[in-house]
Amino acid sequence: MSHKATNWLADINPKDLTNAEFRILFVLCDCHNPSAGCFPKQSYIMAKTGRGSSSVNDALTGLEGKGFIRREQRTNPKTGKREATRYILGFEMDGTQEPSPNSGEGKKGSKPEQTGAPTPNSGDGSISGFSADPSPVFGQNHLRKTGVVYKEEPVKEPVKEPCAAAASHHQDLNLVLDEIWAAYPRKGDQLATEQAAKALIEEGANPADLLAAVKAYAKKSASYDESRVKLSQNFFAGDFWRRHVPVAAKVASRDEILQARAKTILEGKTFLCRSITAHAAGECITAGLVTPQDCLQAGIAL
Q1: Each residue's pLDDT tens digit, 72-101
Q2: How many CB atoms lie within 10 A of CB 216?
Q3: What is the largest CA-CA distance in the chain?
Q4: What pLDDT does 81 receive?
Q5: 282: CB partners within 8 A, 6+ apart
Q6: Distance between CA 99 and CA 127 in Å, rounded?
Q7: Alpha-carbon gap, residue 206 to 245, rounded angstroms
Q8: Residue 63: which of 32, 22, 4 has the closest Cα?
Q9: According to the model, what pLDDT value does residue 276 have?
Q10: What SS3 state is found at 71?
């Protein structure tokens, strides 16, 4: 955590943030490097906070709406592949407030910051050169005493321990979405494209089929005028994308779909099981192919 990020976070009124927003803002500040910026992956934020994808996204949206952060989506100009999101913290934005008396920035007589070996996560030297006083809420930490009294509030939602399997699932999903975006011939809105593809996967579509359809369409439309090629966010609307799934990759019947889905549940394949909705699992239960206990053991919430 950089010195400026530490002071800025310490000066924020706790009442301005929800429990989830504070946890995530703390992680962002911890990853901030004054010379390089802040680029943590969402899977890393989830693992450090123990929160799921929707909880993290809601908190990030809340922080952005309150002006504490700004997200910048970046794309490699040569490959078209999505790169890590950059998080601009409040003190880095134009028009930020002058340093407060508590922050120590610009005040004479402040102690020089100590140097130290880079930390494994932030790559930014020592966290702070000031002596640390344990806070009443967080115990031993690296924040300077600011005079702000933190009031403990009950956690409004269950706090889950970081799950390596869940983090791995999101990492795998992001890789698939990156491949889809890189392969598509006419790129439009990247976020809308990824959300459309992700929604299909969560409804039970095979990620491999989506990628195969994109590659087949890219090959087919190579000779088209650009205006004839669908924008990426429109490709997954309706059943248009299904027309381009290679025949060999298509499942022949509904019974085979249910049997393949039941096999995935029984084998407990983490990545695929987490893309199976409660409704899809219920169809397998109704067909007598799996039991509710099989679904629960595979990590599917019914």
Answers
A1: 888 888 888 888 888 998 888 865 444 444
A2: 17
A3: 76
A4: 83
A5: 302
A6: 19
A7: 11
A8: 22
A9: 87
A10: strand
> 3-state DSSP call for residue 139?
strand
DSSP symbols for 25-60: HHHHHHH-BTTTB----HHHHHHHHT--HHHHHHHH
The confidence score (pLDDT) of residue 155 equals 54
SS3 label, residue 16: helix
Low-confidence stretches of the chain (pLDDT < 50) are 96-116, 122-132, 135-145, 162, 164-165, 249, 251
Please choose, from the candidates 255, 267, 259, 256, the residue with its C-alpha nearest in 3D space to the C-alpha of residue 295. Answer: 267
Confidence (pLDDT) at 151: 54
Distance (Å, whole) CA 131 – CA 32: 20
> Nearest CA to 284 among 256, 249, 251?
256
CB 113 within 8 A of CB 105: no
Q: Which residues pair with 86 in a beta bridge?
A: 72
Give me the sign of the Cα torsion angle 273, 278, 279, 281: positive
How far is Cα 297 from Cα 270, in angstroms, rounded to an integer?
Answer: 11
